[in-house]
Amino acid sequence: MRLTRQQQQTLRAAVDRIIPPDNYPGAWQSGVGDYLARQFESDLRPVLDDYCAGLTALEAESVARFQQSFNLLSDEEQDTVLRHIEAGEVLTAWDVAPCIFFNLLVNTTAEGFYTDPEQGGNRNGVSWAMTGFEEPGSPSPGSPARQPRWGGSGQPAWGGGHLQ
Amino acid sequence: MMTSHDAIIIGTGAAGGIVACVLAEAGKDVLLLERGPALSFSQVGRDHLRNQRLSIYGHNAGPELEGNPRVFVDPAGNARTVRPHEPDYHNNAACVGGGTRVYGAQAWRFMPADFRMASTYGVPEGSSLADWPLTYDDVEPFYERAEWELGVAGDGPALRDYVPRRRDYPLPPVPPSPQTVALKRGAQQLGWITSPVPLLINTLPYGRRDSCIACKYCVGFACPTDAKNGSHNTMIPRALATGHCKLVTAAMADRIETDEEGKVNGVSYFVQEGGLAQERGKAEAHTARAKIVIVSAGAIESARLLLNSYSTHHPNGLGNEYDQVGRNLQGHLYPRAYGLMREKVFNGIGPGVTLATTQFNHGNLGVIGGGMLADDFIKPPIDFWYDSLPPDLPRWGLANKRFMRDNYTRVLHVRGPVQDVPSPEGRVTIDRAVRDRWGIPVARLSGSTHPATVVAAEFMRSRGEEWLRASGCERVWSWRPGLVLSGGQHQAGTCRMGHDPKTSVTDKWGRVHNHDNFFVVDGSLHVTNGGFNPVLTIMALAFRSAAHIVRAYFQCATG
Ligand SMILES: Cc1cc2nc3c(=O)[nH]c(=O)nc-3n(C[C@H](O)[C@H](O)[C@H](O)COP(=O)(O)OP(=O)(O)OC[C@H]3O[C@@H](n4cnc5c(N)ncnc54)[C@H](O)[C@@H]3O)c2cc1C
Q: Is the Cβ–Cβ distance between B419 and B533 less than 8 Å?
């Protein structure tokens, strides 16, 4: 990954405001950083320069607005910085359109958090448990039980049928 | 090296697989060409960002992202090259089974009025709305055949007000889920009739394959128990078992060949040695001869193939004497509505689609046609995040996360395909300046559906919201449909059948006008595309054309 240390720190703090921790882990703890690291090497490579430029500009916005690095701001201050960027109200010069960067940040964070865990994020299916998509411990889709889950011994629970 | 066959069929999708099987079982020697590979369950995989339903970075049933461009022309007239997983590509799939490898498998018949749209509604200006050269009764026996030979689960008696049928479905419908109960209650309150959604899914073991295990991955994925019935696991294995059908994969047809008199006599195609992952330049060119050539490459690629098969006798492409090939591209606008319930309506049991109403397919004041409305297949959370959240919900932060946490299981969805009022300007042409990996000029898509389609879609969106409110949703949201090109996964109409060669491409059997041995059999034939998912109609017509081909060409000739 070609991110500088500063960009890494900004990214980590930013994704945690896009999907903050509450009674479920936030984006970073659930592996969004790992998801992004993989994507920066593959699908996101064509937009990596925009992504990095956006992170640098986000840091500059934070300094311009609060005289501090983004990752050191309070949650509320971080949200303020992000909201201004979302609205296109920026104080500094940006090398990428703020809305393009912001969309990338939001979409790729959500992707890492909600997509299948094989892609690096959504560790242990945490977002799937959170949403109720998968109950923890439900059978792995790759090794299906051979019975319909809605029925007993091959007979559907809704009874009968219209077989002729 | 040149081989010779009774018939060459191009494409192994919904229609191609059926025609191959019927011909091979009649003892005919069939060469079946498929541009894509045969995909195993694990090759299709479970990638939530790269599948045929949500294709953010790619997809899982072809075509390959590199080397298969199309050109899309937007309403302002700007043309750009698009890749297969981009929405403007209007992709279906490219693999053995075509769209049926990964489809959702809703198995709707069209209604009698769907075959008589011009007579029923008149033809609005600027539209190419027309009647079919056949009626529902002509197709009914073949709907039944498709339902029984592939296997459809449904409740025939519950659907008797929608279409007449002689025989019930072979399999019982999928069971209701909590959302079914809520929607049924709402429909009852509105006085609407509902029924279970018919699906090409084994609710019991059928066709020597297992039954559905109710996983959450029907649309855009493959079935872990092979209980979803498509060409790849029903008709094509049967065709191959006869020993009369030779399937060649990674085989891209580039031209229909004709003789000195302009009569169709074969197909040229490229075979990518070592499979599609290989570099450009290693393709081997072949030509095969046949008594009959049958095109079944899907509505966009079939039109492309006919247009690319020009010659001195057919300077505008095959079947295109009157500039009809590629016109009237249709799919479906798909209005959808969402609503928030107080209680959970999700139980994680797939497929997810359970209940529909066909109440508004016709007879709507001020609307041409209409459409079916149903609940939806289970959506993976990332798909839900992109597709289903209320427009006024912040897209990030705790509010967004909490909505996902609290309401993923409480959102009711209804959606449905709206009958397209076709426009001749929604079309497929050829762009000679852009070539695919084989050097073949690519499809260029332009135009849009007729504005009357948008009126119907807006009407159906309101019915969707109405249904959700009556079902107990506190908040309801949806989006206004726009005037766009409709095609995509439900693409159809580009080689429409008809009596008049000046306004159609084939006769009512799919035989291309002015040719006696050249057929189109896929969704391209649809004169109109119904207010329903199209695949069962494509299948029924394929059975019908195949039976005709065997009867008319082979029974007396070789009998
Ligand atoms: C995710 C998804 C969900 C869907 N859900 C439903 C549903 O629930 N209900 C429904 O009714 N429909 C559904 N559909 C649509 C349905 O799959 C299509 O209507 C149907 O497959 C079209 O059949 P066809 O024979 O016209 O073409 P296809 O099935 O597209 O088959 C065409 C075949 O031809 C091959 N081909 C193309 N060009 C060439 C060439 N030059 N040489 C060799 N081979 C070629 C292609 O690779 C493909 O295999 C869905 C589709 C998708 C992708």
A: no
Nearest one of B282, B284, B281 to B269, comparing CA atoms:
B284
Cα distances (angstroms) measured from residue B392 to each of A82, B14, B156, B400, B478:
18, 40, 41, 10, 11
CA dist., res. B106 & res. A110, Å (int): 30
C-alpha distance from B171 to closest chain A C-alpha (Å): 6
Contact A115 B49 (CB under 8 A): yes
Contact A131 B57 (CB under 8 A): no
Distance A112 CA to ligand 1 centre (A): 30
The closest alpha carbon to A53, from A87, A18, A6, A12, belongs to A6
Tokens of B489: 């996964």
Q: How far apart are CA B132 and CA B117, in angstroms?
A: 8
Rounded to the nearest angstrom, the gap between the alpha carbon of residue B82 and the centroid of all alpha carbons in its chain is 20
In this structure, are residues B336 and B478 in contact, taking their beta carbons and an 8 Å threshold? yes
Query: What pLDDT sits at residue A135?
Result: 75
- Rounded CA-CA distance B192/B185 in Å is 10
Task: Kindly state if the Cβ of B494 falls inside 6 Å of ligand 1.
Answer: no
Taken in order A75, A81, A82, A87, the sign of the CA dihedral is positive
Which residues does B89 contact at the CB level (< 8 Å), separation at least 6? B70, B72, B82, B83
pLDDT tens for B318-327 read 999 999 999 9
CB of A32 within 8 Å of a chain B CB? The answer is no
Query: How many Å apart are CA B427 and CA B485, to the nearest integer?
Result: 9
pLDDT at B29 (0 to 100): 98
Bridging pattern class, strands B336-340 and B251-258: unpaired
- CA neighbor of B279 nearest in space, from B64, B35, B71: B64
Question: In percent, how much of chain B has pLDDT > 90?
Answer: 96
User: B127-150 burial string, b = 16+ CB within 10 Å, else e?
Assistant: bbbbbbbeebeebbebbbbbbbbb
User: Looking at CA atoms only, how far is residue A12 from chain B in angstroms?
Assistant: 14
Q: Which residues on B lie below 8 Å from A138 (Cβ)?
A: 348
Q: Is B130 in the pocket of ligand 1 (CB under 6 A)?
A: no
Q: Which of residues 497-556 of B touch A (CB under 8 A)?
A: none
Whole-prediction pTM: 0.96
Among partner residues A119, A146, A149, which is closest to B349 by beta-carbon distance?
Answer: A149
Q: Which ranges constitute the DSSP H helices of B349-450?
A: 381-387, 398-407
Q: Which of A84, A109, A133, A153 to mutate to test the interface with B (most CBs of B within 10 A)?
A: A133
At residue A126, the 3 state secondary structure works out as helix
Record the tokens describing residue B245, joined without a space: 């059908």
Is A164 in contact with B168 (Cβ distance < 8 A)? yes
CATH assignment at residue B349: 3.50.50.60
ipTM: 0.95
Q: Rounded to a whole number, what is the largest CA-CA distance in chain B? A: 73
pLDDT for res B165: 96
Strands B2-10 and B283-295: parallel
Locus of tokens 């990674």: B250
Alpha helices per DSSP H over B11-89: 14-25, 41-44
Sheet strand arrangement including B355-357: B195-196, B355-357, B373-374, B411-415, B336-340, B475-478
Average pLDDT over residues B192-206: 97
Tell whether the model's pLDDT for residue A154 goes beyond 60. Answer: no
Is the predicted pLDDT of residue B184 greater than 60, yes or no?
Answer: yes
Residue of chain B nearest A17, judged by CA positions: B397
Give residue-wise pLDDT tens across range B324-353: 999 999 999 999 999 999 999 999 999 999
Question: Can you give the residue range of the structural domain that contains B355?
Answer: 2-558
Is the Cβ atom of B34 under 6 angstroms away from ligand 1? yes
Place of tokens 């290989």: B278
Q: Is the CB of B296 under 6 A from ligand 1?
A: yes
| pLDDT of B362 higher than 70 | yes
- Say if the Cβ atoms of B214 and A150 lie within 8 Å: yes
